[in-house]
Amino acid sequence: MAQDKSRYREVDIEEVGQDAFxxxxxxxxxxxxxxxxxxxxxxxxxxxxxxxxxxxKNSPRPPAKTTMLTPDMPEAAAMGVTQxxxxxxxxxxxxxxxxxxxxFDLAFRREIVGRGVGSNLTLKDGTKAENPExxxxxxxxxxxxxxxxxxxxxxxxxxxxxxxxxxxNFLNRRSESPKAK
Length: 181
Description:
- By secondary structure, the chain is an alpha+beta fold.
- The protein has one domain.
- It has helices at about 15, 50-55, 75-80, 95-115, 130-140, 145-160, 165-175, and strands at about 25-35, 35-45, 65-70, 85-90.
- The strands form two sheets. The protein has a two-stranded antiparallel ribbon with strand order 1-2. A two-stranded antiparallel ribbon has the order 3-4.
- The chain is extended, with a radius of gyration of 22 Å.
């Protein structure tokens, strides 16, 4: 979904009705077919923030390890440590944690994509994909790669979140607007 193609406008909530916060768009996925380059459009819809938060609550926590911090360590200096002291820090290098995090990331992406794909999809057996699991499976059956699924998930999550550029442009427009003065 190209942000530069979108047109920004402000509207009163009373003008847009019940679906004022329903966000949708398209993500275009790159597919190379011999010499031809295709852009395959997939309709996406926003996933409610409550659903995203509920999914993220299942994220694994890294184990904690006790370590000695000294002022000459860059990490310790950044935290303002001036003398040797013990600290309990998360161990993101733990292999068991990394395996759990990888499994969680895959499940999270799968759920976001399944909930956020708005295209009408059918499974190989001809039945309509009606729930998140079926929508994800229908995309898998079409041969989407992990890169494609990641791109779809990122675009779904960004449907209602400002990018840094969008936020800056929005604030600039607001300050230039006669209503804002």
